Predict the structure of ABC transporter ATP-binding protein.
Amino acid sequence: MSLRSLFKINTFRAGLLVIIYLVYSYAGTTSAFLFRYALNSLINKSLSNFIYWCIAEILIAMVSSLLLAYGTYLFNKQIQQYIHAIRDKIIHHHYQNNNTKVAEIQNILNNNMKTLADEYAKPWLIILSSTLMIMMSSGLLLSMNWTLVVAVVITCFIVILLPRLTQKYTAQATRIASQKNAVFLKTVADWFSGLNVLRRYHAINRLQNVLNQSSGKLADANEKKQKALSTADGLNGVGNSIGQVGIILWGGLLFFHHQLDLGGWLVASNFASSIFDELWDVIDSITQIKATKDLRTELHTLTQDTETDTEEDASPVAISVKGLVITYEGHQIRYPDFTIKACDKVLLSGDSGTGKSTLLKAILGKLQPTAGSIEYYDEKEELIIPNYRQIGYVAQDGVLFPDTIANNVTMFQHYPESQLNKVIDSVELTNDLAKFPQGVNTTINLDNLNVSGGQQQKIILARAKLKRQNLLLLDEPTSAIDSKTSAKIIKSLLASDQTIIMIGHNLLPEVQKLFDYRINLSR
Ligand SMILES: Nc1ncnc2c1ncn2[C@@H]1O[C@H](COP(=O)(O)OP(=O)(O)OP(=O)(O)O)[C@@H](O)[C@H]1O
């Protein structure tokens, strides 16, 4: 997150931008400078000269305006390309690291990107354009009377020192506002995902209370951020006013000592005024850029390359659990010791809350043991450090994507049609698909779900079967499917040579018998 990376995203465009802004500021200041000659022509009652200078001024001002419009357009293009590249890296980062909440990702990709564009990238453009304007205006002031430049420099120091008093305060307020915004978005995501349930139980009051509280804190943080920025603005404004009046006074003194004509005095006052306005903009932009420091550091971490996929090896086929303890906020779950060998088909049972799902999550590396260990072995029965992504997993609440049923099964990989149909058949989905006009090419509508709970489970099971990983963990994979169909699906699942650990409730006795053995958890 640096000016250099913003520049480097398209070096040619960035170079062109600098040239455009150089010409724009030169044209802008020259146009303003010509006012001196127009005014002096007026004082000397020379109409033709007056019209000549006015036309010259207008033409140059028009060129300057057109250049500004084009420059702004180009700069926005540069920012969008820059933001796009950062978003891409952040998405990659979150793809590699699965421990971030959706609301946090939303906040980073949306709100934080907007902050980066508005409060980091755009201020750099203001700094470029204002610095050029200050340099051009100072040059023209120098051509009139060097003491004017000295007076401007002295007052500039006052203007520069004042904002330093508020920098830390604004940086902290901006960071807190961003954190509160993340909390607010998470609250909205958490509570609105269960909106239908809240409606069913008439829990509007609870929803309102929670959102009001979070929204109140966000409003408070935004108010404090605005207060900090306004205080900084106010201090900058005080310095600016001192500067402007000082130059008018100094120019007037030069006029009375016949060192400046009337046109020169007016133009000098205007230049001084514009120098202070531009300087104010520069300082304001620097304050904004510095206030985004924490955000940029955070984004910098997120855009660094992280672990890469190591799909090739480390695929476990067997596990051994010893002295395993998992702790949730002081609540401990102790597991018996057991070993699951390659190709074993294991039914994991036990009362509700005994830790079945927790065990699968621990095997998947999503939860770290407080004590004990889970050891993983490969096909050669050698101890390995597993690649957790090589373990197949069907969760209780499997995820579907707003794409076709076929793509939800293949997960966007290419498989022969016959293989896809076979797997669809093995999870008893063929008859369900016959009811959809577009069959396997039906797009799943997540907003208004067009597949039943049982069909969802079948699609997710087909996905796991097609991927065919050596070790497959299934968390009540057929809970929404009738017991007869469920029996057929489980029978087909267990016919593979994979190692399978399946959590199951209320399975028919003949289905239970299909497993090699059962691990029963108790409290
Ligand atoms: N994220 C969590 N934070 C705190 N406690 C949790 C968390 N997840 C589970 N627990 C607790 O751990 C215990 C085991 O939960 P787990 O979901 O593993 O049980 P289970 O045997 O799979 O239950 P069920 O058959 O009802 O699905 C429960 O008491 C549960 O409340």
Observations:
- The chain is about 65% helix and 10% strand.
